[in-house]
Structures are given as structure tokens and as C-alpha cells.
Amino acid sequence: MTRTWFSRRSKGKFLPGWGGESGMTLTELLVTIGILSLLTAIAIPHVNSSIINLSSARDYLLADIRLARGNATGRGAHFRVTLSSDSYVTQRLQDGDGDGIWEPNGAFPSQTVELPSTITITEGAGEEIEFDTRGLLIPQPDGTPPPVIEIALKDSKDERTVEIFVVPSGQVIEE
Question: What is the rounded end-to-end Cα distance, in angstroms, of the chain?
């Protein structure tokens, strides 16, 4: 006799080989739950992924800017993050001849990060964030202190915007 869940006896005749009980077996119940789980897993990613894209892009950019600052202080080299509208590039710089001009170090490849297709940098694109060996933003060429760098990430799907600020002390602040 087959063990069934939620079974009840029926008084009718059944096909030969079928038990005298009707209901769902444990296997049938597990298969049904598995199919429903699979359908749910397929549907979940389509639930407003723009919220995830914007927050993920912000978090990755924050982490990479903070990592560049940490690397500058820990490795004794300048690090630069160059922003464009749809990506950003992190580079390690060197002053090979000691003239005070820091240039990309060819021994260390630059890292380019592409933003999700709906995310753009609307404010701050074209900016270069360069940290010196103390983790500070480098002064402007005329010697004046560097300005606060404002970065705005915008999601074109729902027009949401998040802002990031890099202050002259090198601190990165999110809004």
C-alpha cells in the first residue's frame, strides 16, 4: 500500500494497481513545492532592479574611492580615480624621476569599472580624484587647496539620484 498524505478512503472502484486511497503522496507534494519555488525564483529578479543597481553602483564607487585612498597611504604612492559619465578608472601613479609629477605606473594595470546601463554620473564626470601618500587630495596646480568634489549618480529608470562628496582631507561622504 502506498503511504499518502491527506488521504481519505473512497468508496468507488479504481483502476487495477491503484491503491484504495486518494490524496497526495509526499513526492507529489515536494514536486509541487519545487515547481512553485522555481517560478518564484524566476519572477523575483524582475521586481524593480533599478533600486538595486543604483545602491550597488554607489556602494562600489564609494568602496573604490576609499580603497584608492587607503592604497595611497599604505603603499606610499599616489592613486587616481578618473570619472566619466558611464564608468570610472582607478590608477596607481609613480614619480619615477623625483620631479614631483606623478604619472600612471605601467607595472600596475588600471582598473576600469563600467556602471550599469541605467546609471550615469551626472555631476563630477570628467573629474580626477587624486590622493597623495598621506591620503589627502592633491592641491591645485597653483597651490590652492583642492575643492570639494561632488559626484551625483542618477538612475534613468526612476530618476533617482544619490550624491557622494570627497573633501580635501580625503574623506568620502555619502548623502
Answer: 66
Beta bridge partners of 5: 24
Q: Supply 172's cell numbers.
A: 568620502
CA distance 73 to 124: 24
Cβ atoms within 10 Å of 63's Cβ, excluding its own: 11
The predicted pLDDT at position 4 comes to 55
Helices (H), the chain: 26-43, 49-75
Number of helices (H) and strands (E), helices first, in the chain? 2, 11
pLDDT digits (tens, 9 = 90+) for 65-122: 999 999 999 999 999 999 999 999 999 999 888 888 899 988 999 999 999 999 999 9
> CA-CA distance, 120 to 151, in Å (whole number)?
10
Give me the amino acid identity at 75.
R
